[in-house]
Amino acid sequence: MAKKNSQNPEIVSGQALIIGASSDMAQAMSRLLASEGWNLVLAGRNTRDLRDQCSDLSIRYSIRAELLTIDLMDSNLRKKLASLDGIPELAICFAGIMLNEDDARSDADVAD
């Protein structure tokens, strides 16, 4: 069971939520946090890859890693996040929207 924060019992101490967890940068951050003893919730759309990451991190670093399949554009996102057992102490988002690179290079409004 995760340790609850004494000042705010809704916060799960030592747990980090990584959104967009299948990206290379997110994977590097997940390994760093796991090596420091953080328990992880890996969130994203690629369930198979994230399941493999959870398994690897759990075995390699002796931490608890769980999967949360989400899409930031999903109207049920709030419900899925509310299904977590408390609020993670740390949340990092590596997800974003990929623009058309050619449009962004030629149109400053698109790039902004």
Describe the structure.
The structure is a single chain. The protein has 112 residues and is α/β, with parallel strands linked by helices. It has a single domain, classed as 3-Layer(aba) Sandwich (Rossmann fold). 38% of the residues lie in helices and 26% in strands. The chain contains 5 helices and 5 strands. A hairpin with a 6-residue loop joins strand 1 (3-4) and strand 2 (11-19). The protein starts with a strand and ends with a helix.
How many domain units?
Answer: 1
N-C termini distance:
44 Å
Instruction: Tell me the fraction of residues in β-strands, as a range.
Output: 25-35%
CATH fold group? Rossmann fold
The coarse overall form would be: globular
Per DSSP, the total helix count is: 5
What does the main sheet amount to? 5 strands, mixed
Low-confidence stretches: none
How many strand units?
A: 5
Q: In percent, how helical is the residue content?
A: 25-40%
Structural class: alpha/beta
Look at the structure and give the mean pLDDT: 88
CATH superfamily: NAD(P)-binding Rossmann-like Domain
CATH architecture: 3-Layer(aba) Sandwich
Please write the string of helix (H) and strand (E) elements.
EEHEHEHEHH
Radius of gyration: 16 Å
CATH class: Alpha Beta
Topology:
Blueprint: E1 3-4, E2 11-19, H1 24-35, E3 39-44, H2 47-61, E4 65-69, H3 77-82, E5 87-93, H4 101-106, H5 108-111
Parallel strand pairs: 2-3, 2-5, 3-4
Antiparallel strand pairs: 1-2
Summarize the structure.
With 112 residues, the chain is of the alpha/beta class. It has helices at residues 24-35, 47-61, 77-82, 101-106, 108-111; strands at residues 3-4, 11-19, 39-44, 65-69, 87-93. Strands 1, 2, 3, 4 and 5 form a five-stranded mixed β-sheet that branches.
